[in-house]
Amino acid sequence: MNETQFYIYAIVVPVSTIVIVLIGVLLTNTNMNARVRALNASFAEMSGGFGAICAGSVNGSVGFANIDRGFTELKDLIQACSDWQDANFLRFEEKLLGKFAELDNRLSRIEHHLNLGPV
C-alpha cells in the first residue's frame, strides 16, 4: 500500500462512516417524530377523557363527583361511629361513677357501724 492509497483510505473510511451515521440518525428521527405525534394524539384523547370524568359522565359513570360523595358518606359514617362511641363511653363513665359512689356509701356505713370514723 503506497502513501496515496493510505491517505485516500484514511479520508474515505471516516467520511463514509459519518455519512452512514447521519443517514441513520435522520431515518430514526423521522420514525421518532411519527411516534411522538402518535403519543401526543393518545395524550390528547386521554386528556379529553379525564376532562369528561372530572365533568361527571363518561360511558354512564358519574365520575369524581361519585367519589367525592363516597368520601363524604364515609366521613359521616365515621363521625356517627365516633358519636356512638362517645355516648357509650359517657354511659360507662356514669355507671363506673355510680359504682364508686356505692362503694363509698358501703365504706361509710361500715366505718360508722364499727365507730372508725374520723376522730
- Global geometry: rod-shaped
The helix/strand series, from N terminus to C terminus, equals HH
> Low-confidence segments, ≥5 residues, pLDDT <50?
none
Query: Helix- and strand-based class?
Result: mainly alpha
Supply Rg.
Answer: 43 Å
**What is the mean pLDDT?**
82
- Our estimate of the beta-strand percent is under 5%
Query: What is the count of distinct domains?
Result: 2
Q: What count of helical segments does DSSP give?
A: 2
Profile the largest sheet.
Answer: none
Helix content: over 70%
Termini separation comes to 131 Å
For the secondary structure, the number of strands is: 0
Description of the molecule:
The protein is mainly alpha-helical and 119 residues long. It has two domains: 1-61; 64-119. It is built from two helices and no strands. It has helices at residues 3-55, 64-113. The longest helix is centred in the first third of the chain and has 53 residues, at 3-55. The protein starts with a helix and ends in a 6-residue tail after the last helix.
Write a brief caption for the model.
With 119 residues, the chain is mainly alpha-helical. It contains two helices and no strands.
Features:
single chain; rod-shaped; 119 residues; mainly alpha; 87% helix; 2 domains
Topology, pairings included?
Elements: H1 3-55, H2 64-113
